[in-house]
Structures are given as C-alpha cells and as structure tokens.
Amino acid sequence: MKYSKIIFFFGTFLFLFNTSFSQDAKEIITKADKKFRGNSAKSVMTMTIVRPTWKRTLKFKTWGKGSDYSLALITYPAKEKGQTFLKRKNEMWTWNPKISRLIKMPPSLMSQGWMGSDYTNDDILKESSIVNDYTHKIIGSEKINGVDCWKIQLTPKEDAVVIWGKLIKWISKDEYNQMKSEYYDEDDYLVKTDISSNVKLMGGKKIPTHIEIIPADKPNHKTVVDINLIIFDIPINDNFFTQQNMKRIQ
Amino acid sequence: MSSLKIARRNIWRNKRRTLITAASVFFAVFFAVIMRSMQLGTYAEMIKSVVSAYTGHIQIHKTGYWEDKIINNTFRKNPKLEHEIAEIPGIKNIVPRLESFALASYGEQTKGSLLIGINPEKENLMTKLSDKLTSGKFLVNNDRGVLVSEKLAVFLKITIGDTLVLMGQGYHAATAAGKYPVKGIIHLNSPNLNNKIIYINLPTAQELYSAPDMLSSLSIIIDNSDNLEKIKEEITAKINTKNYEIMTWKEITPELNQAIQSDNVSGQFMLGILYMIVGFGILGTIVMMTAERKKEFGVMIAVGMKKTKLARIIFIETVLLGSVGIFFGFLFSLPVIFYFAKSPIPITGDAGKAYESFGFDPVIAFSTHPHFMISQVLVVLCIVIIAYIYPFNSILKTDPVKSMRN
C-alpha cells in the first residue's frame, strides 16, 4: 500500500515534470513566434540573392499585421520599383505598375522563390503556424553564434497541413529569438537552413537583423536578408491591406 | 583489238537482242536515278525547311543552355567572335536571338509563350519571316512592336494595334514585365509554334529581360549543307568551347535527323528491291542470249577459239551493251530530275497538311547532286557485270560436240 503510494506519487511527479517540460517547449515557441511577428510591424529590408556566378540586391518596405495580413513594396532597383505584393489570409496578389496588372499568384507558383530568392512564396504565406500545427519537444541546448539556445524539435500534427517532415529550431534563452531553423522533408532530408545573427535593439526589441537562408541541395546558393529598420506595434487598419492600396502605396 | 571488233560486230549482228538487253539496263538506270533523286531531294527539302525556318544549320549557345534553356544561360554579344565566325568560308548568315519563356496576356486571357528577340533584317534574310505575315507590318529595327503567331492571337483575342502584356522572369532574377503594341500577325507552319511564338526586336527583348547585350543563340546558315561537320569543326577550333556549345541541326532536332535516317533505310530497301527487279531483268535477257548462242559458242570452240578468248569477247559485249543502256538511261533521267528539281511536285490535300504540320514545305523535291547519280550508275554497272557470270560460266563449261548437236 505504501509502496503503491510512492509509485503513484512518483508517477504523478514524473507526469507533471514531463508535461511541464513539454509545456515549456510550446511556451518557448509561442513566445518566439509572437516576438517574431509582433501584433503589427513596419520594416525596411535589404535582400541579397547570392548565386554561384552572380549576386543581386533588392530593397523593400513591408507592413504586417498578425499572421493574416502583409504588404511589401519594392523600392530598389529602379526597374523593379513600385511592385507590390499583398498577402491576405492564404491568398497572395502582386501588382506591377509597368503593366498595370494585378495578378493573383496561382498555387503552382507557391513553391517558386519570391523575386527569384530562396524565400518561397509559401514561406511568405505561412499557412501553417509553428505553434498550433506542431508538437514541440526540447531536445537539447546549444550555442548558435555565441548565443545560448534551446534546441527544439517540431513535429507536425497528424491533421495539420504542413509541407515539412520536421523542423528543428534553436531559440535563444535570453530573448526568445529564432537563431537557427532547419527544415526537413518527409524523408528526413535537410531542405534548407535559416541562420540569424547580428542581434540588435531595433523598434524597442532585441532581434536578429541578419538572416541567411541556405538551400541544402544547391551549393553556393543563399539569400541574405538584412533588416534596416523595423517598428513594432504600429496601429494599422485591416483596410490598409487591400488591392486599392497596393496601387497607391509609396 | 580483234576481240573488241568481234564483240562490236556481234552486237550489231542481232539488233533486236541488243535492243532488249540495252533497254533493260536503260530502265534500271532511269528508275534508280529518279527514285534516289526523289528520296534525297525530299530529305534535303525537309532539312532546308526546318533549318531555314528556325534552327539554322549550326547554333552557338552558352555552355549548358541546351540542357537548361533559362534566361540566365545566355552569353554576352561578342562582335569579335561573330566576326571570326563570319570569316570561315561557306558561312552565309549569322543570326542572333534572345529567347525565353514569357506569359502573354491581353484582357482576360493569359497564355505561356515563347518570346524571341530578333534582328528583323537578319532574321528575314534567314527565315523569310516577313512572308509569313498574314496581316499588319513586319518589324523594323528599333520599333517596340511585337509579331504574334496566329493561333496565339486567336486565343488571346488580340489584333493589330492592341497592347500585349508580357511577363516573365528576367536575367538574374529580375522581374520582366512590359506592354507592347501588336504590329503584325504571323502564320507559322508548325502548329506547335503557331500557338506560342511571339517575335520582338532584340534590344526590346534585352530590355524586358534586363539582359542588355545578352543572346541565347547565334544561328548560322551555311552555303552547302554537305560541309556541315567540316564547318562545325572550324568553328570549334576558333572559339572557346568551355564557354560556348556548338550544335548542328542534327543535334538540335534529333527527331528530324532520325526520321530522315529511318526513312532513308526504307528508301534504300525500296531501292534494293528495284535493283533486284532490274537485276533479274538484265539477267533474264543475258540468259536468253546465252541460250540462243549456245550452238554458236560450240562452233567457235570447235574451230579452235580459246574458251577464255570467247569469254572475253562476251564480256566486252556485255559491258558495251550495259554502257549504252546506262548512258541513255542516265541521259533520259537528267531532264526529268532537273525539271522536277526546278519545280517540285506539290503535295495537296491531307498529306500536304500533314507535311506542313511538321514544318516542311508540302512538296516532293528532287536532288541533282552528282554524287548519288554516279553511285546509281556504278550500281547498275555492277549488276550487269554480275549477270555476266552466267554466260562466263556457261562458256567455260561448253562441250562443243554436245552444243552443236542440240
């Protein structure tokens, strides 16, 4: 009797310990996701596409609200200036002033790189949520670029619409920044890696401002994104993210 | 000397026999030459239509372009290179192009298309593109208009003067988008091309794709397609093959080359059957002649003529008869093939349409290439000499007593 009580107690303890541990993993990811997205944000970024024989730089402004709305405006180079991209829920539109055409991105273009980069249109739409569509587990603790991180494995839930087989994310312990992510396909092959660095105070938050996206199967290909400016939690109305505004915005 | 004289007299002695034998050789040569001329002429015509309509005899690309035809696999225009190639004897035209995929859009309709940036003058010299206009005007240097292929224009519901929107991916991931007025509608024979091709001025295409001075190919037309491999080698020797790939039309359109090769095999098979028929015709007349003259041979041998000498006389006779037949057969076939080489036989109806759909001119053309004519003549001469084996054998075996009794 006494014995079983001990086992029960121990079991409960283990159970509690276990749930609190996995709760932790989910909590970490939730905090990291919230920090990354913010409620709303406005930013100025520079993107450099690096290929074995050439390089190309783009500059753009973005506006975002929650995970449903975002708008991007290309500002450089001159030839591309004025192109806008609108994301509303799970639809994406593009406007090109040169041809005065508003085009809805067909699903077939989703796996294509955005503006020729390694950043796919699907990454931008992010129909899946790293919080709700995955189960999370801390699998270790590592340093990425000198920053102490939790190593968390994300496994998609069975009913989730997710294109990845699994994700491994390194979340910094101090600031809940996503310092590194590895994306694996269903056969457990690494598809691409994001590495963040250069953590700076920007828009009132300490965030990494330099992100490299490296596809695994293409040597010497990468896309580098630098955040030049970001302002968090600005008031933006939902009507800001409309097709009319795509044509007007500067 | 005397053998020749006897042989000649023998020929003149029986004019009807001579005529029959010579006629069988005559028809052999006549038909063999015409048939081969028709086959080779038709292949040459197919090659010519495909080569001059689009591919050129030889194309130069940036290495890797043929494997992956993307806008990034283009090369910078290089006047020095073009100049060096132009110096190679036998080169007629060098035509620069920039081709890439583009979405063509007008109103509610959008369709994938193949946009080809051309130099209108050079392109017209090579492909006679201006003849394919069904309406509108041909491009002139530096205008911003486009020529849209017929079926594509129908699909897009676009006509001359309308503004076509083109979208695509430019050089090094630039965005390619622009609006261009439709200047003309062209009809291309190949249905596959007729519903996707758009022609535009080369500088305009380069601007659209943010690829100034870049080209995807140089198409080369040569004077004489027999020198194809030789000229390819000369070009290969002149340019850096690390940066450029050089391809002949055989590599560019392997399906055409294979179609010609397989058709050529069946053509040669038909020719083989023709040789057999005429061969047996010639053999038949020679066997008849031998049987007819069995007694004569017997007498000759009996009065003391050596069998070998008799065999020699008969050989000279056969060759003389054969030569006469060959000469006239050849002579009579010439006007026929030269006439049809000048004005090929048109193929009408569905067969003609089928030809057109492959991008060929619907005609049966004739070749006047001396090479094949000589080979036909030699083949028939060989047949005649092979047929001679029968009388030769028969003479050697002649028993004068037996043959005189018969």
Task: Note down, in words, how this protein is organized.
- The complex is a heterodimer of chains A (250) and B (406).
- In chain A, a hairpin with a 6-residue loop joins strand 12 and strand 13 (222-232).
- Chain A has 250 residues and is α+β, with helices and mostly antiparallel strands.
- Chain A has helices at 2-37, 121-125, 243-248; strands at residues 40-50, 55-65, 69-76, 84-88, 91-96, 101-104, 134-144, 147-156, 166-172, 178-184, 190-202, 205-215, 222-232.
- Chain A is globular.
- Chain A has three helices and 13 strands.
- Chain B has 406 residues and is an alpha+beta fold.
- Chain B has two domains: 2-51 and 257-405, no CATH class; 92-224.
- Chain B is built from 16 helices and 14 strands.
- In chain B, the strands form three sheets. In chain B, strands 3-4-9-6-8-7 form a six-stranded mixed barrel, surrounded by four helices. A two-stranded antiparallel ribbon of chain B has the order 2-10. A two-stranded antiparallel ribbon of chain B has the order 13-14.
- In chain B, a hairpin with a 5-residue loop joins strand 7 and strand 8.
- In chain B, helix 2 crosses helix 12 (307-342).
- The mean pLDDT of chain B is 90.
- Chains A and B meet through loops of A and strand 7 and strand 8 of B.
